[in-house]
Amino acid sequence: MLQRSSRATWFIAGLATLALGGCANYVTKSDFDSTVAQLRAADQKQQQQLDQQQQQIDQISQQMKSAFSKYDAQITALQGRIRVDTVSHFAFNSATLSDQDKQMLDGFARVIREHHPDVLITVEGFADPAGTAAYNQRLGMRRAQAVRDYLIAQGMSAGELRAVSYGDARNRLVKPGAWGAHGEVNRRVALVVDFAAPGTPPDAPSANAAG
């Protein structure tokens, strides 16, 4: 991202040079220097914002690893976001949170509420492939909404939480084809901590995602 930003800045500066070269009688050197200085300042500001975002990502990643160290949760740092997977598992055909799930979500809510109130959380719901794709899509949403509602009850803002369902989408199953007693890992909710501005549309699955 940084390289693209720098290239864009100097590309604009190059265009400015060409434009000013064709209008030498109308643009002074001081005006040109001022334009270049503004471009450099904008590039520096963007770099500072990227550095601050990366520091926040690193910080929340460590906090999540500490909060979930005693649970079977995977913390993955992605570009501009943190993914907390296997946060909640559900009984077959159920969207009811277990007491252990609630303990994990308590820790998650506390970290976000106290240290990162400006982030956006996507709650992703999943199902095993036992039912139809349409039913599993709805079941995944019920699970995502159950987790979202619980986090709101723990003091998180409804505006920073959004729920999506991937149902039984094969490319998102932890153990493809597993259901019933063997498919608990597929009946889950994952949390994605996104550092995008509020109002950014979620990466929602397409209508044909489940299968």
Automatic annotation (TrEMBL):
It is found in: Cell outer membrane. Pfam families: OmpA. SUPFAM superfamilies: OmpA-like. GO terms for cellular component: cell outer membrane. Residues 36-70 form a coiled coil. Residues 77-197 form the OmpA-like domain. Keywords: Cell outer membrane, Coiled coil, Membrane, Signal. Residues 1-21 form the signal peptide. It comes from the Bacteria. InterPro entries: Bact_OuterMem_StrucFunc (IPR050330), OMP_bac (IPR006664), OmpA-like (IPR006665), OmpA-like_sf (IPR036737). This is OmpA-like domain-containing protein. It comes from Metallibacterium scheffleri.
